[in-house]
Design goal:
The protein is an alpha/beta fold and about 300 residues long. The chain folds into two domains: about 220 residues, Spore Coat Polysaccharide Biosynthesis Protein SpsA, Chain A (Alpha-Beta Complex), CATH 3.90.550.10; about 70 residues. The chain is built from ten helices and seven strands. Helix 2 links the parallel strand 2 and strand 3. Helix 8 crosses helix 9. The longest helix has about 35 residues. It is elongated.
């Protein structure tokens, strides 16, 4: 069974077309109405979609969590996700799911960078920001996927059961890739086109806010994956700086009998901060190691 998952928030203008076109390529369409104030859910349900209603807007991550749970309950063999605003073309679903159908990959990503999107189709500010975010995410998480923020993806049955997002916001796209990499799942990228022209809006959030959410999410993943490096190295650096400032204060006092309040306070501040970071690093490393051993 092929199930399509569509997170939607106030998309009554486009949801009908997306649902109808998607139904021609899959067995079941699941629409998560994430607290919409319009007729999004009602329209999708009348057109044959299974609608999961969130009473309030909980974010893209929560919508994806509901989609994965529904795919499990429906016994989906393949889950394909796409946006409700018309950016993704449902006619390309067969191309996106093909690597998963052929058992060539556990996750197929509809990529805007693999012979798909033309530079002129995307607003310049969005293209520059997206390329920067993609580059940061790839390098930070050591991912081989070029289009890390694409929501047009296909997941195998194995991926459906191994992945369940915890992020509530837009960082869910990065989280799913990171979790998949940790689980040893394989990836493929499929060229797709993305429509930006003519859409009423291309993002629910300010681009800067959007980017900060993704960056904060990626940094959180890194801190969990490598706590000793993420917290421990800055902790050691802070302690060393504190020692340097302390030695400087002692040097001044020895030479002039003058007690430098500034250097002393800096020394205490850096040493305490460094010790706290080292303590956090050790505690997190211990907890995460224990959790991994229990899996």
């Amino acid at each position: 069974m092929i199930v399509a998952g569509i997170p939607a928030f106030n998309e009554e203008r486009t949801i009908a077309k997306v649902v109808l076109e998607t139904l021609t390529h899959v067995d079941k369409v699941v629409v998560v109405d994430d607290g919409s104030k319009d007729m999004t859910g009602e329209i999708a349900e009348k057109l044959g979609a299974l609608v999961i209603k969130h009473e309030r807007n909980m974010g893209k991550g929560e919508a994806f969590r509901s989609i994965f749970k529904a795919a499990r309950e429906l016994g989906a063999d393949i889950l394909v996700t796409l946006d409700a605003d018309g950016q993704h073309d449902p006619k390309q679903i067969p191309s996106v799911i093909k690597p998963v159908e052929d058992s060539a990959a556990d996750i197929a990503v509809g990529s805007r960078y693999v012979g798909g999107l033309k530079a002129g189709d995307m607003p310049a500010y969005r293209r520059i920001g997206l390329e920067a975010i993609d580059s940061f995410t790839r390098r930070a998480l050591h991912l081989g996927v070029r289009d890390t923020q694409s929501g047009f993806r296909a997941y195998s049955k194995t991926a459906i059961w191994k992945l369940l997002p915890t992020e509530r916001n837009i960082a869910v796209d990065s989280e799913l890739l990171l979790r998949a990499a940790r689980e040893g799942l394989s990836f493929a990228e499929v060229p797709v086109t993305v429509a930006y022209k003519g859409l009423e809006r291309t993002s629910k959030h300010n681009p800067i806010y959007h980017s900060l959410q993704i960056i904060s999410g990626v940094l959180k993943f890194i801190s969990i994956k490598h706590p000793l490096i993420f917290y421990g190295l800055p902790g050691v650096a802070f302690v060393m700086l504190g020692v340097v400032f302390g030695l400087r204060a002692a040097e001044i006092y020895t030479a002039t009998q003058y007690f430098s309040v500034g250097f002393t306070l800096l020394s205490v501040l850096f040493i305490i901060s460094g010790l706290l970071l080292l303590f956090v690093a050790i505690i997190l490393f211990t907890l995460i190691s224990a959790m991994r051993e229990q899996r």
